[in-house]
From TrEMBL:
Its main location: nucleus. This is Jerky protein homolog-like. It is found in: Nucleus. The lineage of its organism: Eukaryota, Metazoa, Ecdysozoa, Arthropoda, Chelicerata. GO terms for cellular component: nucleus. It comes from the Eukaryota.
Length: 169
């Protein structure tokens, strides 16, 4: 009598899919990467078939951290809002501004209205968690000192640079 046990479903993350694609590009046969990553040949074939989708998705990622554990290439419901909000976030953070979760949600609602987004959009805590996951945002509030490096770092760099210029001419 045949057993009813099924194969364990092994879902690969984006990073592994790219590694499989690289191995296939180098001329390896589909079974070799499949065995190496402990997946079926059909999984490697499926990764190869969706090559363009995967590589296109990876090229749009803003953060390496966000892609390491991610397993799907599904984007946000409102991609334009997502990208506009992330651009605003990175600009503000580069200026050294502290950005809290509620402030980010407030800005998301404002941008949604300006961009003519969904009327029923709610910047909930779940939405915020997913946004942070998509872009690899770990800490919303960080000290300004860590962004700027502080006055001491600038002085040390200047001294080192001047010594180097004097030595090298």
């Amino acid at each position: 009598m045949a057993s009813n046990s099924k194969w364990k479903r092994n879902v690969l993350n984006i990073e592994t899919k790219v590694e499989i694609l690289n191995r296939l590009e180098k001329g390896e046969i589909g079974a070799s990467p499949a065995q190496f990553y402990n997946v079926g040949k059909s999984t490697a074939s499926e990764v190869k078939k969706k090559r363009e989708i995967t590589l296109n998705f990876v090229s749009k990622l803003d953060s390496e951290d966000g892609s390491k554990n991610r397993k799907t290439t599904r984007e946000a419901n409102n991609v334009l809002l997502d990208r506009a909000l992330y651009l605003w976030f990175t600009q503000r953070r580069s200026k050294g501004d502290l950005i809290s979760g509620p402030l980010l949600c407030e800005k998301a609602l404002e941008l949604n209205d300006k961009l003519g987004g969904l009327a029923d959009f709610k910047a909930s805590t779940g939405w915020l968690k997913n946004l942070k996951s998509r872009y690899g945002i770990r800490e919303l509030q960080i000290e300004v000192k860590s962004l700027t490096g502080g006055k001491n770092s600038a002085c040390k760099f200047t001294e080192t640079f001047l010594k180097h210029v004097e030595e090298e001419g």
